[in-house]
Amino acid sequence: AGGTTFIDESPNAFTVTRNGDAVLVSDATYGTVASFDGSGDYLSLAGNSSFQFGTGDYTVETWVYINANASAQQTIVDTRGAASASPITFGLYQSSLMLYDGGVRQTSGITLTENQWYHFAASRSNGVLKLFVNGTSYYSAANTVNISTGANSIYLARGFDSSGFYFNGLIGPTRLAKKAYYTSNFTPPTGLFPTS
Asked: Which residues of 161-185 are buried (b: 16+ CB within 10 A; e: fewer)?
């Protein structure tokens, strides 16, 4: 707790750069997590082909605690890096979980509220994209959008553009993978995500 060094614990071991006054804090449920105040705090990683999912399977997932403004647009992960890149933006929009990949994919049937932990996941398998909140699917549709990234940074807790759409809350373990880990409702993993 109180630390300012953020680590990619995947086999890639990418360098994670701290921006603003993002800080590590202790949480009774999830251990050490990243805290963002919604005003200029974010993490960044250099663009890399590992974030280019093409038209294939992928998963983006994270544990999130919303401090405030759940009804506003807030970015959790943005893999665009540049306006010219085919995007994935993963975050909150109008009190729901949203994934933007050139079109808005948004959960329905659930309203996200402040001051509690959520597990969020977007998983595309064999051309079907699903969005999960706490292991339950609230969006499912055909999707073969070609996902690439620009040469610029990948962002956590903000969007790539000048609007920022900074996140206000805590972000726990986060994973981006070229694999569909979830195709139906599931029990969310706790702690670090398994690598298999």
From this structure: eeebbbbbbbbbbbbbbeebbbeee
Q: What's 2-17 look like in SS3?
A: CCCCCECCCCCCCECE
Measured in degrees and rounded to the nearest 5, phi and psi for residue 49 equal: -65, -15
Q: How far is the first Cα of the chain from the last one, in angstroms, to the nearest whole number?
A: 29
Helix, strand, or coil (residue 49): helix
pLDDT digit string (tens) for 139-195?
999 999 999 877 778 899 999 887 789 999 999 999 999 999 999 999 998 777 776
Q: Is the pLDDT of residue 64 over 90?
A: yes
Please check the confidence at residue 61 and state whether its pLDDT lies above 90. Answer: yes
* Residue among 192, 193, 176 at smallest CA distance from 47: 176
- The answer to whether 99 touches 88, Cβ cutoff 8 Å, is yes
Query: Are residues 166 and 148 in contact, defined by beta-carbon separation less than 8 angstroms?
Result: no
Rg of the chain over all Cα atoms, to the nearest angstrom: 15
Please state, in angstroms and rounded to a whole number, the distance separating the CA atoms of residues 161 and 26.
30
What backbone phi and psi angles, to 5 degrees, belong to 50? -60, -25
Identify whether the C-beta of residue 46 lies closer than 8 Å to the C-beta of residue 171: no
Instruction: Tell me the average pLDDT across 69-92.
Output: 83
